[in-house]
Design brief:
2 domains; seven-stranded mixed beta sheet; 35% helix; globular
């Protein structure tokens, strides 16, 4: 994706480092740092800086809409994906007898709002088998009382990628439920097909290479009334400063309902710069460059004495794979000593490959992993 010169210019912190941990934290380009400095300059203008703030807000929404395949009016930016899901839980106004389907490959943000003691709905778990969510296991969990099915396009845990349109068709066939899709581990790394998804959510500090403090939300216009969040605020309200402001509050429908207060403008500046960078490079070009590296790395890891926990069917691979090793913590420590960065947790090692990675990164990692496995 990048030439040697452009990689060094745009991502100088990667010099001498093998960084295969974008699924946890993306490394932003210098353009994002410049955007944050621009925010500070605009903020120093006081109230006059708000015109610039809101211009960047609209630009960030337009770029997000392009990524989601929606219009700018159908997207917004809140503070994080966890906030988005908690607001979604409010919007559903669940009652006893309602049902929500979660799964065991999801990040807690998308699963835990429905597990809180105050949630009256019955939660059903779509359980993975051999690291995959099998489509045939979903219909028995669906029925006339199913209100929501929430799932990640790509699992943070092992990188398994669902067929989102097949899942959506199954949900539609067997229930009246809405479908929420977390694209955090996919946005900016693989081309997306998000037609007719009812709620789209993404964090901003991973594959899109922006900052913390952002949560991208997409709601198609046809589903706007299903996501009217009953939360206090002002940006999310129809008439927050009207004559009846102390008598009643009416939330705006759709994506606009998920921005309850003043936007996190530093994050907005970073998001706009990061998405603009990805737009110029092209997500399809990123995928074309990074996917052969992922497959080559996976092929080498499969030769080692590890327990692969990621299904290896090409259609279900995005930018992540994971494996277990009895001495994972020790291996992780040895890799870090060589300035090689992957994720390690509870015996699991996770590798994430993005467009700024190179074949040299893969070679260094595989060589070091082989040596560390022998030394452990």
């Amino acid at each position: 994706m990048l030439t040697e010169d452009s990689r060094r210019r745009d991502f100088p912190s990667l010099e001498g480092m093998t960084y295969l941990n974008t699924a946890a934290e993306g490394v932003p380009s210098l353009a994002v740092g410049e955007a944050l400095a621009e925010y500070f300059r605009d903020k120093q203008r006081g109230m006059d800086g708000r015109d610039a703030h809101f211009r960047r807000w609209e630009e960030a929404k337009e770029l997000t809409a392009g990524m989601f395949g929606l219009s700018p009016a159908e997207v917004t930016i809140c503070s994080c994906s966890s906030e988005a899901y908690n607001l979604a839980a409010l919007a559903l106004r669940l009652k006893p007898g309602d049902e929500v389907v979660i799964n065991d490959l999801d990040f807690p943000a998308g699963a835990t709002p429905w597990l809180q003691e105050g949630c009256p709905a019955t939660v059903k778990v779509w359980r993975s088998r051999q690291g995959a969510l099998r489509l045939e296991d979903l219909p028995p969990l669906l029925g006339p009382r199913t209100r929501l099915v929430t799932v990640s396009l790509v699992s943070f845990f092992n990188g398994f990628r669902i067929d989102e349109q097949a899942v959506l068709a199954t949900v539609r066939k067997h229930s009246p439920a809405l479908m929420a899709l977390d694209v955090t581990q996919a946005l900016g790394r693989i081309p997306l097909k998000l037609q007719d998804i009812d709620l789209i959510v993404s964090s901003t500090h991973k594959w899109i290479l922006a900052s913390h403090g952002g949560g991208l939300v997409g709601v198609p216009r046809a589903r706007a009334e299903d996501w009217r969040v009953p939360a206090g605020g002002w940006h999310n309200l129809e008439d927050p400063f009207g004559a009846g402001r102390c008598e009643r509050a009416v939330s705006r429908p759709g994506a606009a309902s998920f921005t309850v207060g003043m936007p996190n403008f530093p994050a907005v500046y970073a998001i706009r710069a990061a998405l603009d960078y990805l737009r110029q490079v092209g997500v399809a070009a990123i995928h074309q460059a990074a996917q052969p590296l992922l497959l080559a790395c996976l092929d080498e890891v499969k030769r080692l004495p590890v327990e692969l926990i990621t299904p290896v069917e090409p259609d279900h691979l995005a930018g992540i794979f994971a494996f277990r090793h009895a001495h994972a913590a020790d291996i992780h420590r040895r890799l870090r000593e060589r300035n090689i960065h992957v994720m390690s947790h509870a015996g699991r090692l996770r590798v994430a490959i993005h467009g700024y990675n190179t074949s040299a990164d893969v070679e260094r990692f595989v060589t070091a992993l082989h040596e560390a496995s022998q030394e452990a």
